[in-house]
User: Fold these one by one.
Assistant:
Number 1:
Amino acid sequence: MSEPVVVAEVVRSGFVESRHHGSVVALDHDGSEAWSVGAVESTILPRSSNKPMQLVGMLRCGLDLAPELLALVASSHSAEPFHLDGVRRILAGAGLDETALPTPAAYPLEDWRRDEVVRDGVRASPLLMNCSGKHAGMLATCVVNGWDTATYRDPEHPLQVAIRTAFEELTGVGVDVVGVDGCGAPLFSSTLTGVARAFRRLALAGPDTPEGIVAAAVREFPEHVSGSRRDESQLLRALPGAICKAGAEGCHAAAFPDGRAVALKIDDGERRARPVVMAGALRRLGLEHPVLDELAESPVLGGGDPVGVVRPVLEESTSFPT
């Protein structure tokens, strides 16, 4: 079994002071592997990169929401006002309110938004937790089917059985590990190749299928999937037809309507390396856009000024000075 390799390095004042290990797989137009580095067939927990596939399972069970609310169900949101309003709309449509959310009380995912709510005197709450959209969608799906809403996080609940079935079908990989995600929902394992395959299937799906409906919602409402200031929404806005979703512990996946796809994991879970490596992987796969050049070099500061970069170590044709 392959091991994770160096996929990013931190350069300060011309000196490489740190390196991030990880694994990346890229699929070509026809779904074959274009290239890979690291342990792309090892079992991983894709964390919130699972959410678009979880939403497919919910749609197959009869969930019916406006596209912006579907994007929110697939999100790890920043708790911006439009996110919170959307979660309340999902719950209200099911005859529920935010007291039904079992997500742990939390502050917003991003520092700038957390600072805003703290200044406004708002306390941590289940609604502010970045997975509240997903849980609102799960609760609404239970209401549609007359399923128990108190036990829906049990892996044996009909909702989770349906989600697991959809997930295994889309990834083409059997679930080896069932964990508990940070929000309390079941978390199903896969491989990076499986996750890339699933995103590719979403990106290529017909418009009237659950998979195609999820892809369309992600494309149309990128800010609902993440936040107005996030690297994910930058990619979705800049790259026509893209779908993407990041997750905790350095997970990220993206796919395009021409069949190309990428999935990655940063081995140490460090958030700073994830967007850098994704941008580098997309460039190596042949995509070009100024946003990729911007994201592929995250500044390293010294005294408040840029003195280096975090950069990907993926592009065979690129030689970086050290």
Number 2:
Amino acid sequence: MIATFPASKSEIVNRIYEAGVVGAGGAGFPTHIKADSRAEIVIANACECEPLIRSDRFVLEAFHEEVLEGLHLMMLATGSSKGLVALREGSSIPDLEKRLASSPALDIVRVPNTYPAGDEHILVYEATGRIIPQAGIPLDVGVVVSNVNTLLNVSRAVHGRPVTSRIVSVCGDIPKPCVTEVPIGTSVGFVLEATGNQVDLKEKAILLSGVMMGEICEDLTRTVDKRIGAIIVLPRSNRVVISKSLSVETMVRRAASVCCQCQLCTEICPRHLMGHAISPHKIMRAVAWMITSSEDLAGALLCSGCGLCGSYVCPMALSPDRISYMVRRMLAERGIRAEAVPSEVRPLRAWRLVPHERILNRTGVGIYERDLNFVPISPPGLVRIPLLQHSGVPASPKVAIGRHVSKGDLIGEPQGLGARVHASIDGIVKAIDDFVTIESK
């Protein structure tokens, strides 16, 4: 850890903003906003509950000093007196545990090895006993949660290093699964080829960021951004791939004709079990009956998108998760928002947690579960860097076509809630649209 830290809260916040740090756990919320808040506890989220992925574990093993430095910086910025590193039960990282033994303000907390242990509402409850209100955020109960990759970037930001790369797990039904680090804007196809894992999209499918919460990628030119932590290859015959490949029309038609209202989706829903007013089976019923305005539909605003209802429990192989996401987006477009109200954990929750091993077995990906070694790869000759890879508004380009840029140069500045974007390789700017395309020379 560095001997001296920035002199003030504002300096920490400014350095995080200047470096373009966003939440690396998936949502991409600008981290300088979290750092500019006040909290009692900061949690480093290393639960990594999605199957197959090992990015967080690699970060903790290889960069634990920097992660703890980032945790310390977030504690200083938010005025927190306690920092927790959250791991799933059964996880052991000896160097990290030895380092924490001498830090009275820092500690490890182990949460049940269940899915979705990394969900903020679940994590905060398991780690602290505090219950975030439905539609609320951890700050509502005095907590800030940051992914360990985010904290690594916070540490690097203080040393003047903007976010220009992403640590990615490349895993699944491939010959050479690994963890690697790639420049932001690198194509998925390049990453697979560079690691010796070329894919024929006729036979196999690619999921980005997760088996359960990830999305199908049908375009090998799709680029890795700050939020994408995994490239997962699975057979087209895998049940999760089949479910995620269904069209909206097919999902709705099946909901109308097949859903038997067994309520299993609701009984297993992690947010429902936390006391939130979401009942996926009622959302399915409302969609099937073409009801466009009801309290049942409003529950979709509370969906975390964990995928348990669709990829794990539905006996009819329906997609309550994807339908809930569709409804949530529709309601958001109407300007409808859920209100944060207190919730109370349901008594049966402890008996309805889903162990990690059951997720592996039910989704059919257990045969691909293994430790992943780090494999360095050479940078690509061309990157397409998205101007929107965070929550909020897209960044506005700050470069012109034909300009030479160096790795780390500012190429995008937000005009509202958002994050800065930086060049990830040295080269010439070739095109500017929703992306800044840079070709190395």
Number 3:
Amino acid sequence: MHTPELVARLYKKMSLIRRFELRLADIYHTDAIKSPVHLSVGQESVAVGVCDPLEKTDIISNTYRCHATYLAKGGDLHAMMAELYGKQTGCAGGKAGSMHLVDIKNGVLGASAVVGTTIPIAAGYALAMQREAKITGYQRVVVSMFGDGGTEEGCFYETINFAALHKLPIIFVCENNRLAIHTPIEKRWATEKLCERIATYDMKTHKIDDGDVFKIRDTIVRVINHIRKEGGGPVFLECATYRALEHVGPRDDHGDSYRDQDDYQRWQEQDQIIRLGKMLDDSTRRMIDDEVTADIQAAEAFAANSPYPEEEELYTHVYASETTKK
């Protein structure tokens, strides 16, 4: 049985992600947004279910479709919107855009536009945390998020092997929306038994087929306890999900030939935001919806009123500084 407080928290997090991204879709065609956007509409339950049990000092490693995990982990909403606007107050100074969000104080490692590249970086961070725990006595956890297309990169299997060999405190989470841009999984994989493939590395695996936010969260809670208290790890979690919009941009592309309409209808019927909204009383739901509206409006105003980077910023963070070298 899930408490009303938990239901309300998860509903608010998922609603914030979806409504923020739908607002981005509304203004994408203006000159306000300065970078391409890969939206996670439909996939919110994975990011929220995974990130909700994490502590602030735990780390999430993203793909380029990173808005949802950034917000679910507690990333600064104002700084994110400002980054999308290319403003100086953005989380990367307005120079990185949608695919490179970062908020290290809230445990969000920098995302990357190149498929699969953050997976080995996450493992390296997990190795550092493993060594840190020998000094502090407390084990922080890393979560590496990637899509099903990311599992087709060579660095994925190299990293899986390294993590298993060294028993790293890392959770690998595959957001399996069955699409690599526009190519369905059945045209790319000889077998869909991904968890069985990963299990050959002597790694514990879990699979959730329906996007149930509670199942995802409960699984992550058990896995974190396994890592923190029992010294276990790594663990692999495959979460089926659905990308409601096009690969990059705000368009609804369900009229395109690569989409399965029956699949779309099935995922619409089990939408987790609608499901949790029905679990709340009307006054609580309205209060949360109003708070989300206010948060998004405030972030948009902050971004619009923030300055663009100064010209000198073109030359910063290009080379290591003398301080960094020391």
